[in-house]
Amino acid sequence: MAKLNLSELGAIDGFIAAAIVDTDSGLALATLGEGIDLELAAAGNTEVVKSKRRVASALGLNDEIEDILITLGKQYHLVRPLERNPNLFIYLVMDRKKSNLAMTRHTLKSFEQNLDFS
User: CB within 8 A of 103, min separation 6: which ones?
Assistant: First the structure.
């Protein structure tokens, strides 16, 4: 199993909370942050990922989800399935006023590459 240390994500400008989620069960395998029910968010966003995958398949897109962005008035919610393990995804909540979306996406990609799945 991966070493699921989310502390690197906590350094992202505007960070509020994060989780690594198992798409099969909807359970958060690791969490960091507060102010949001990460267990509920993990379960709900699992359904979002599954639904988007079904739609992409039905449309014959023959492509993978890179990330899903949910923009709220005060927050960004970013869902990023892992390239090396599509049964897991990163769920990240950021303060919209304090975050840089492009840098956050870059950081998430780098973070995933450093995950240890040994």
Answer: 12, 13
pLDDT tens, 37-62? 999 999 999 999 999 999 999 999 99
Architecture of the domain whose range is 7-113: 2-Layer Sandwich (3.30)
From CA 54, how far away is CA 59, in angstroms rounded?
9
How much is the pLDDT for 105? 95
For residue 7, the number of C-alpha atoms closer than 13 Å in the C-beta half-sphere is 2
Confidence (pTM): 0.93
* DSSP string computed for the chain: ------HHHHTSTTEEEEEEEETTT--EEEEEE-SS-HHHHHHHHHHHHHHHHHHHHHTT-------EEEE-SSEEEEEEE-SS-TTEEEEEEEETTT--HHHHHHHHHHHHHT----
Amino acid identity, position 75: Q
